[in-house]
Amino acid sequence: MTTKTSPFKITKAFPLEKNDIQYNPSSEEVSMKRAKFDAFVKYAQALEEKLEAAEDARDVANYRARKAGKTADVLQALTEDVLKGTAAVRTWLGEPSHTLLELSTRTGIPYATCHRIVNERLGTPNVEIGHLQQMISAVSRDRRPFAAGAEKHPRFKRVLLGLAKGFVEDELVSSWQMMGSEVSTVHGGLEIAQKVKELHPDLILVDVLMPNLEKSGLEGLKIFAKDTKRTIVLTGEMVETNSALLQGSTDKRNKAEELASEGETAGG
Amino acid sequence: MDNRNYEIRRDYLEGEELLQSLPDADRQKVELAIAVLAKDPWPKQFSAKPLGDKAVKITVPVEDDEIAVLYEVDVYESTIDLITVKRHGPFRKAADWLAGLVKFEPKGKS
Residue A206's beta-bridge partner residues? Predict the structure, then answer.
């Protein structure tokens, strides 16, 4: 029979003070307790990391929900603006290059998605409320404004881009190609006139500051209008854009005329 | 690290009230850490930890505590959206206390 000796040793009779108790555990006992304690600490640390990761994931998920909600709210506000025809929306429609950045910044929607939306807006200079609402519901649902298979029925089969080099040409081309359009690009004013007669594109998108265009971009639109369904001019100046839409578009509707006439009035 | 300046946005930030309730010195430390993100979205000095899908977390040591800042980095748009500012939480404190105990060496009088 083995007797187990206590690791505690009392060196003095009562009353005891702090240093009157000595603790002298055996080395086996120390290592065993240390191993148990180490295991417990590791478990506690692992648990802490799990709890922390779960809390972080919840915070991120809540943030995304807040952001998505705000996106839907902002787009809804834009719809209402369109209905009212406020100046902000006319600017939104009239300044494509600014629109992308502004819309993306304001809504938090990825730039590429904004690009698709704005391209769609460029394809329809006249405000189409129903379509915008569809986009809103689609965007707020899964941020894909165009339904699967939409590329089989492109709004414009042939698109001609006449842009100065260095513009967002690649993005425009890929966006329209995604929508199923055949896209041609030219970089000079004279080439545009030639290509328009050759291709009879459904849509021309031309930079108003296009180099080598014999006449001004707006004058050129009158020529293009004969050979295309629709011409859009890109410019940072809203008034010019609306005037351009009036002159260049062969499919003018009331809203476009309103915008254009108001733009001309504003421009004197 | 690139040479861009990231735009720091607080549109969706939660925990602004915690930031305001901190002592001045601590709040300045946290604000400085946030400002650093404009130049370096993954600062090593604040133990930047990716949380997946563009979300990142940094930890800023303050008096008797740590403040965690969660944010989302968009490298294409050069923007940083702050998500939340929060204390590191009781679990971390408990784990740190336990980890400190590991260093304890039981010794008796010889």
Answer: A162, A233
